[in-house]
Structures are given as C-alpha cells and as structure tokens.
Description:
The protein is mostly helical. Helices cover about 50% and strands about 10% of the residues. It contains 10 helices and 3 strands; from the N terminus they run ααααααβαββααα. It has helices at about 5-20, 35-45, 50, 55-60, 70-75, 80-100, 115-120, 150-160, 175-185, 190-199; strands at about 110, 125-130, 135-145. It has a 3-stranded antiparallel sheet.
Amino acid sequence: MTDFPAAQKELRTALLNQLDAIPGVTLVDIAHPADWTLLTGTFNAARLAERTEPFRHWLREDPAKFGVSLLSWLQGLMLSGDEWITAQRAKNHLLREVLDGLMNRCDVLLQTGPVPFDILGLPEIAFPIGFDAGGVPVGAILGGQPYEEDRLLEVAAAYQAVTDWHTRRPADPVPAAARLRAALPRPRLSAEEVATSSA
C-alpha cells in the first residue's frame, strides 16, 4: 500500500477491506523484489521498439501526426540491438520474479500500476473502486497468472456484487465558458438605473 498516492490510499484500503469480507477471499501481504523499480522501468522503456513497429509507416509519412509524443515514438525507432537484448533479458528476469516470487503466494495481485503485468503479457483487469476528493473516478488493477483471466473476472465480479461503484458515473464536467461566467460577477442594473442611463 505504500506505493499508492496518499489521496488513493483510503479507497484502496476500502477495496481491501471489502475483498477481505468476501467469503473465500484471503488477503496476503506481498513485497516487491528489491530490483522491482529498476526492472519495470528499464525494460518498459525498451518496449518502445515493440510499440513503434506497427506505426513505422505513419512515422515516415507524417511525423506531425504524433504530436507532442513524437520523441518517445522516435526513441522506439532508434533502440539499439544490444539495448533490445538487454531488455529481453530483464523481461525474462522480471517474469521469473513475478511468477516464482510474487505470484507464488497468491492467485491475483493488486497492482500499483499497469506496467508489470502489461509488459509481461500477463492478464490483468481494471475496475472502479470509488471517486477521489475531486470527483475523479479511481480504479484498481488486478494482475493474474498466465491463462487465469477467469480468476480475475471472478474476483472483480465478487467485488462488484458487494459494491456499486461500477454503476456510478462521475459528474459531467462544467464547460470552461460556464466556469468563467460563474467566476466573474455580472453587473445587475435596476429598471431605474437603465432608464436614467439611457435618458
């Protein structure tokens, strides 16, 4: 729980409490390996090559289509062979740590972000768990073992059976013009003031 932003810790704690109250669910504490940040950060950057490959044609044709994120797409094109090989080794090491370490003691894992399971090609599921103080929806991501999508669906369905976050909708945003009108007081003139000023 220490990896979560402070504003979301309360919601994550409520999620864990509700999961713990579901019959058949047993919560266990799992610690990240010491090299977790290094592995998830280092070779996540190396994934740029995989992400860029399908878009090569459009990058050559008109790079302006990629807007402000152009630099990361170009980095994917310029990844060297040795960087890619190192990333694949890191990916294999991370996969072993997840499967033989983290997932050795549990069926599903509450993730602090989408990166680890996404970059390893392992199944994950995201679902809503509440709203923050600003009314913005907050979700949780569970990761699972290979081919265990059904387990993730079972846990999410069990959680949604005892909560209603998945049925709630955030308030519609107030358009910028309406916020501006509300912030600036408009002068009010009485009928007499209008008559006097127009005479």
